[in-house]
Each structure stands twice: as structure tokens, then as C-alpha cells.
Write a structure and sequence with these properties.
heterotrimer; A alpha+beta; B alpha+beta; C alpha+beta; B: alpha+beta; 4-stranded antiparallel sheet; 4 strands; globular; C: alpha+beta; Jelly Rolls; 7-stranded mixed sheet; 8 helices
Chain lengths: 246, 81, 304
């Protein structure tokens, strides 16, 4: 982290301060987030499986909220946009609003007030490597969160339960679809697999060098009971099976 | 294991299995009939192979309809290839 | 499109030609029944020359490569790719000259994969463009599926620009050796594909009647009595975000000079660069006989 970024980071006290900090075009946001990538801590695991994922295909016929080739200030900070532009990256996926059937997945997993989006990565699209700061969740709840103290260790509101992020595979894996949660790769997933990852420390990147869409449902938020997530992290055979019709 | 070897073996060991009952698609075996897929799956599982079975998304541009897909998991390393 | 290499394709029956009509390009996932028909046809006995003619006039040209794969999902990673050699040399220097070349020719800025004349059968004094040769309908198919920035191909064997890399090519003692640098700028993505007919085989067929008249083995995808090898080795250490997949397996964390062989005949492989550093990969290809050390599955270390 360069000195300018470091000194501004040290002044961050509240969630509002943090959101202002990351939007400051003078900080090196990519460098800042990459500094959290930690090979000893990073990990991903499948914690659940949804047995009957709803049909989402109709939703992809809509115009995406953000297109994969766009550079959007909704999903990227100012300095992040510059970095991506200079490396020919776009948003990396088409973002769509989910419908109520897909929102049920978040409810079934036990998320509370989650940020939920469909991230569809079409063939030929590449998502630049990064470490998350769950800014979409904080921006979407800014009014409620901005005056709260910011926990720099967890990089989230201090008063809040742990914020989790997961991806739900809406289709089976196809050859050429590459998802890198460093240092490993998620591959050969089945439709309905729910992957959690340590977003605070895990650098990740994705590419669709396959020939079919790669749709994930991205869910970010706190959970009523995250024990099954913690259990699955310890024991990869402990996968919670969820039938949405139950 | 190559498809041609697998197909030859399945056709010679499974009664009534015909060449046009199944094909290869992106490394997976795709079957016109789920019943046939179940028979092949049971045969392979009896030989201690780990098999995953899934449903099929049929596409408009395909000539035929298919009901089931089988694919292997965790095949052993081949010694002399 | 006239090239030095182009054979008289116009004299063949083009009534089912897919080259020019985008509507006839096949869409993934390809029809399994069509793939089986093409696969079974491919397995019929032919000489290498006959195989080339069959490919060039095939009405379903763009599905041939996919149909030719015999890959079974679940295959062990070591049967997809494996290290065969370690080349120790001044990789810093090699990287520097590749980077200088890339900067000189704006390979990162001018990154768009488009049609190109197939010039690589003959030696060239100077390389004029960097898109790898693809037959029109193959490239059209890739464009149709969203891929327009694959990688930049820098010629080694047929020009004199990189003597250091030609020295690396020599250690493999290939016949009909052909070496390129596969330089992938950031944001590039080359779609999953199965290799089929390479430039080196075409050169060999065009210039050597022994190869042209040899029977073609559709499983090893080369002349009977020979094996075609494709060795890839990184010129630089892996950077996060650089991706190279072989079916459900991924190679990463590489070091320069790690030479790997892979089941190019059957494994769908793909590359992408979601990192912030261009990815230079050296590809050395050629023909070997059964007494070659690679055919005997030996591992070697070379210091150049």
C-alpha cells in the first residue's frame, strides 16, 4: 500500500469514511485491496446445495443493469475504473436483478437483508483479479450504515454480524469456465452448488473461455444462523441440502 | 480412457445397447433414454466407477431429444499413455 | 483470400460450404449426433494428404475439431498435462526481448484477433501481423460466440528475430519443428478448443511426400509411425489471474522453463488473462519417432 493510500486509510473511522476513502480517485484502490490477499487465510468451500434452482433464463432477456463490457462506477471505484480501463477489462459480467423466485434462495440460506444480483458471465468475458470490499452491500445500505463505526479487521460495519458472500451456481460447469479463488480453482460445479469464500482475504478472478453463459447468483449479507457455513468450512463433506419447495 | 474404447466396451458388455443409444458431448455420455442411461450407470458403478447422472437441456438445433447424461468422476491415472 | 499456401479448394464441391455463410455456422453445444457422424467419418482410413483434403472441403468444418476429441470427463489431471522437461537459461533476458518486441509492435494496444493469410508454411523475413491463423469459419464461429481477443502469436522458427528461443527449440530435436510465442495481453481469452490440424503438419504434408502419403492416425492426430508433440513452457513466472485450463483441470503457479506436454489431441484447453501482466508462453511443436526421449516418457533438464 503506498503512503498516500495508507495515511488516508488510517483516518477511516466510520462506514461513511470508508466509502469516501474508496471513492477517492487519488488512492490506489487495487493496490489497497490486493494488500489483503493472504495465502494463509484465503479459502472457498461449498456449504450448501439447492436442489431445484428456479429458472432464471427469462431474466437474461432483459437489458442488464450493468453490461460486462461497461466500466461502471456502481461496481467499481474511481481508481479501480482507471486500472481496469488501462488493462482492457470491462465489468467482467452482466448484472441482472433477480426475481422473487431467486430471492427465495437467499431466504432459504438464511440471509438477512441481503444484496442479491445475478452475475452472468457470457463467453469471451474476463473479470480482472481483485479482492472484495463488499462495497455494493454497503452502498445499498448506506443511509443505515454510514454513521456506524467501521471494523478495519473485518472490513465491514463494526456493529454488524459477520457479513458473508456466496455464489450460487445456476447452471452446471462447462469446459472453459474458469473461477480462481487463489490459489485454487472452483471447477466442475453442479447447478445449485452454493460456494462461500473468505472474501476478506481471497483474491479472485474469473473468465469464461467456454461457449455457454456462466450465471451465478451473488448474495451478500448477514445470516440468521451461519453455523452450517462454518461447519462446511471445517468439513467439506458437510453440505446442507436445501429444497426450495420445503 | 478414450470414448472409442469405452463405447466399444459398453456395446459388447451391455445387452441390447446400440451405438445410436448414446453419444459423446464435451466429455459426457448423452443418452436418448433415461432407462438406458440407468442401465449403463449401474453397470459402470458395479465396476467401481464414480458416475454422476444429470438431466439434459435439449437445444433447438439438435436433431434428437435426449433424457440423461452420465459422466465420470476421479478416474484413475492411466499408466502408459 | 489468396495465400501462397492455398490449395485449389475452389475446384471442390462448395454447395455445402460453410465458409462464407454465417447462418450455417454451428452453435454450441454442437448436435451430439452430428459430432458422432463426423467422428466416425474421421476414423476412416486416409493418408495425411487425403485427411487435409477431407478437412478443407468438409461441410461441417467448424465442428471437426470438437468431434475429433475422445476425451472422457473425469480423466486424471496427469493424463491431461504433465511436465516433461526443465529448461534453465537466462529467462530474464528472454522476457526482456519478448517485452521489447511486444512494445515495439504495440501488441498490447493493437489486440484484436482477425482474419490472416496463412503465410506460415513458408519462411518469412518479417512478421506482418500477429493473429494466429484460423480458417475463416473457425474464426467466425469464435467471434460469433463472443471471442475477439485471443492472443498474439509471435513467430520464432520462420523468422530470425529470436535466436535464443530457437536454441530452446533445438534441444527437443523435433523434425518439422515449429516454435511460436503465444503472447496473451491482459483481458485476452481464447475459447476452449481441441487442437486439430496444425501448421507444422501442413508444412510437412506440403513438403514431404513421405508424410503426405503416410496413413493418418485419427487418435494420435499425426502420421502413423510418428507422434506430434506440442510442448508449452512459460517464459515468465505465473502472475495471479493468468489462466490455462485443460478440461476441468487448471495449470497455474508455473515457473519459467517448466516444459509441459499435454493431451492436445483430445483435451479441450482454454486460456484467459484476468491478471495485470501479459502472459508469454513458448510453444515448441514437432514430430518425433518412437525412440525419442519424449516418446519414452523420460524427463530431462537442459541448461542453455
Amino acid at each position: 500500500m503506498n503512503n498516500n493510500t495508507m495515511s488516508k486509510w488510517q483516518k477511516v473511522k466510520t462506514v461513511g469514511d470508508f466509502l469516501d476513502f474508496i471513492e477517492d480517485p487519488d488512492i490506489d484502490y487495487v493496490d489497497f485491496t490486493n494488500s489483503f490477499a493472504n495465502n494463509m487465510e484465503q479459502s472457498f468451500w461449498v456449504a450448501a446445495r439447492i436442489t431445484d434452482t428456479p429458472n432464471y433464463k427469462q431474466l437474461l432477456k432483459n437489458k442488464p443493469e450493468i453490461s460486462s463490457m461497461e466500466l461502471s462506477s456502481t461496481t467499481m471505484t474511481a481508481s479501480e475504473l482507471d486500472y481496469h480501463k488501462s488493462n482492457n477489462f470491462g465489468n467482467g459480467y452482466d448484472r441482472y436483478k433477480p426475481d422473487s423466485n431467486l430471492v427465495k434462495i437467499a431466504d432459504a440460506l438464511g440471509f438477512e437483508n441481503a444484496s442479491i444480483w445475478i452475475n452472468n458471465q457470457s463467453p469471451g468475458t474476463v473479470m480482472g483479479r481483485h479482492v472484495d470490499c463488499i462495497t455494493c452491500f454497503m452502498h445499498e445500505n448506506e443511509e443505515e450504515l454510514k454513521s456506524q463505526l467501521f471494523d478495519k479487521e473485518r472490513r465491514q460495519p463494526a456493529n454488524s454480524k459477520n457479513i458473508w458472500r456466496c455464489f450460487v451456481a445456476l447452471e452446471d460447469w462447462e469446459p472453459g469456465q474458469i473461477v480462481n479463488f487463489e490459489p485454487n480453482f472452483w471447477t466442475n460445479w453442479s447447478k445449485g452448488d452454493v460456494l462461500f469464500f473468505d472474501w476478506r482475504n481471497t483474491a479472485h478472478s474469473t473468465a469464461n473461455a467456454g461457449v455457454k453463459d456462466r450465471p451465478f447468483l451473488k448474495i451478500t449479507g448477514t445470516m440468521k444462523d451461519d453455523q452450517f457455513v462454518l461447519d462446511a468450512r471445517q468439513d467439506k463433506s458437510k453440505i446442507k441440502v436445501i429444497d426450495l419447495n420445503d | 480412457m478414450k470414448y472409442i474404447e469405452l463405447k466399444t466396451s459398453l456395446l459388447s458388455h451391455i445387452k441390447d445397447l446400440k451405438p445410436n443409444d448414446f453419444y459423446l458431448l464435451e466429455g459426457k455420455l448423452i443418452f436418448k433414454s433415461k432407462d438406458t442411461a440407468d442401465i449403463v450407470k449401474n453397470y459402470l458403478q458395479d465396476k467401481d466407477y464414480k458416475i454422476v447422472q444429470t438431466s439434459v437441456r435439449n437445444w433447438e438445433h439438435w436433431q434428437s431429444k435426449y433424457e440423461s447424461i452420465l459422466y465420470f468422476k476421479d478416474l484413475q491415472k492411466e499408466s502408459n499413455e | 483470400m489468396q495465400t501462397k499456401y492455398k490449395r485449389k479448394i475452389d475446384s471442390k464441391d462448395l454447395s455445402q460450404n460453410r465458409y462464407k455463410n454465417m447462418d450455417h455456422l454451428h452453435i454450441h453445444p454442437y448436435d451430439p449426433e452430428l459430432l458422432e457422424t463426423v467422428r466416425n467419418d474421421l476414423l476412416k482410413p486416409r493418408t495425411c494428404r487425403e485427411l487435409m483434403d477431407w478437412v478443407d472441403s468438409h461441410p461441417h468444418y467448424d465442428v471437426i475439431a470438437e468431434a475429433s476429441s475422445q476425451y472422457i470427463r473425469g480423466t486424471h489431471q496427469d493424463d491431461c498435462f504433465w511436465q516433461v522437461a526443465q529448461i534453465d537459461t537466462d529467462w530474464h533476458h528472454i522476457n526482456r526481448i519478448i517485452t521489447e518486441y511486444a512494445e515495439e509492435h504495440d501488441l498490447d494496444k493493437n489486440f484484436k484477433t482477425d482474419y490472416i493469410d496463412e503465410w506460415r508454411v513458408y519462411d518469412m523475413e518479417k512478421q506482418k501481423n500477429y493473429s494466429p491463423f484460423r480458417h475463416n469459419s473457425e474464426l467466425d464461429n469464435q467471434h460469433k460466440h463472443g471471442f475477439d481477443k485471443h492472443y498474439q502469436l509471435i513467430e520464432v522458427t520462420l523468422t530470425d528475430r529470436f535466436p535464443e528461443i530457437k536454441a530452446i527449440e533445438k534441444v527437443f530435436e523435433f523434425e518439422w519443428a515449429k516454435t511460436d510465442i503465444n503472447y496473451q495481453p491482459t483481458s485476452g481469452a481464447f475459447p476452449r478448443h481441441v487442437d486439430f490440424l496444425s501448421t507444422l503438419i501442413k508444412r510437412a504434408i506440403e513438403h514431404d511426400p513421405k508424410i503426405a502419403n503416410a496413413q493418418y492416425d485419427p487418435i494420435t492426430k499425426g502420421p502413423v509411425g510418428w507422434q506430434m508433440k506440442r510442448i508449452i513452457m512459460p517464459a515468465e513466472s505465473w502472475y495471479p489471474g493468468q489462466m490455462l485450463s485443460f478440461e476441468e483441470h487448471i495449470w497455474s503457479n508455473w515457473e519459467p522453463g517448466q516444459a509441459i506436454d499435454f493431451s492436445w489431441q483430445h483435451c479441450r484447453h482454454a486460456t484467459a488473462n484476468s491478471g495485470y501482466n501479459a502472459r508469454p508462453l513458448i510453444k515448441v511443436q514437432g514430430l518425433i519417432r518412437d525412440d525419442h526421449w519424449l516418446a519414452k516418457k523420460e524427463y530431462k533438464k537442459f541448461t542453455i
